[in-house]
Amino acid sequence: MKLAILGAAGRMGQNLLRCACKMDGCTVVAAVERPDHPAIGSLVKEVSGIRSERLPDSLCFSGNWPESAEAVIDFTFHTSVVDNLKNAVANGQAYVLGTTGLTDEEKDAVHAAATQIPVVWAPNMSLGVNLLLELVRRSASVLGPDYDAEIVEMHHRLKKDAPSGTALGLAEALAEGRGVNLKDVACYGREGITGERPRGEIGIHALRGGSVVGDHTVMFVADEERIELTHRANSRESFAAGALRAALWLVNRKPGVYTMRHVLGFEPA
Ligand code: NAD
C-alpha cells in the first residue's frame, strides 16, 4: 500500500511515520504538511530522526497533494479536512480520518465524500480501546443492571476536558449494551449527600495527574463478584498502529463510512 500521511510533522504524524516503517505491506510515499510549515522541503529522515530502510532517503515534507498515494491518513486540524477530502475524492484515494473536533458542516462533508471513496472515521483508533468498547458492550448486555457499572479514567495533568472522549464512548457502549439512553442514567462524579445508588446508574469519574497517557477501567460490580476491564495506553503509537491497520484494511473497499468496528470485524463491511 502506497501511503501518505497528512500532518506528518505533528505529534501523531511523527508516530505514524515511525510505525509505518515497522509495518509490512506499507510504503510511505508522502509526508504532507501545511504549505507554510517550517519543515516543508526538509528531509523526513533528518527531522524525524527515523533510521529505517523502509523510509526513502529522499522523502521530504511537502505541501502538495500526494496524488500517487493509494491511502491517506489525516491527523491534521478540523478546518483542513474538507479540502483534504475533496483532493482524495478527485484522486480516488482511501481515507483514514483521525482528526477530531469536526463541526457539523465538516461532518456532512465526510459523509458526502464517502459516497465516492471509502473512509474509516474514528475518534480513537487504538485497537485496544476499540476492543474494550466491544467487550464493554457485550458485558453490559450479558450482565444487565444487576451489576453496578462504574467507569474510571485517568489522564495527565495537562488534559483540558473531562471526562475523556474515550470514557464517554465507553459509557455509550455500556448504555447501548443495556438498551438504555446514556443521558437518563449517567452520573458524572459524586459529592455530598447523594442518596443511595440508583439501580442502572452508570458512574463516570475522571482522575488527573502526572503524565499518564490514558487509562480507562470499566467495573461491573455485584454483591458476590466484581469484573474490571482495563485499558492502559503507553504511548500515542497505539493510535498510529490502529490507523495504519485501518488504512491497510480500507484500500480497495467500496465507498462508505467505516468505523474501527468494521476494521476489527465486529460489524460486517
Ligand atoms: P498536532 O498539532 O501535533 O499535529 C497536527 C499537524 O497537522 C501539524 O503539524 C499541522 O501543521 C498539520 N496540518 C494542519 N493543517 C494541515 C493541512 N491542511 N495539511 C497537512 N498538514 C496540516 O496534533 P496531533 O496531536 O498530532 O493531533 C492531530 C489531530 O488528531 C487532532 O485533531 C487530535 O485530536 C486527533 N487525534 C486523534 C486520535 C485518534 O485516535 N483518532 C488520536 C490522537 C489525536
Count of separate DSSP helical elements: 9
Could you report the average pLDDT, rounded to the nearest whole number? 96
Q: How far is the N terminus from the C terminus?
A: 20 Å
Q: Give a quick account of the main beta sheet: strands, pairing sense, barrel closure.
A: 7 strands, parallel
Strand order of the largest sheet: 3-2-1-4-5-6-12
The fraction of residues in strands falls at 15-25%
How would you classify the helix and strand content by structural class? alpha/beta
- In sequence order, what are the helices and strands, one letter per element? EHEHEEHEHEHEHHEEEEHEH
Task: Give every kind of bound small molecule, once each.
Answer: nicotinamide-adenine-dinucleotide
Shape: elongated
Q: What's the total count of β strands?
A: 12
How much helix is in the residues? 25-40%
Overall radius of gyration:
20 Å
- Low-confidence runs (pLDDT<50, min 5 residues)? none
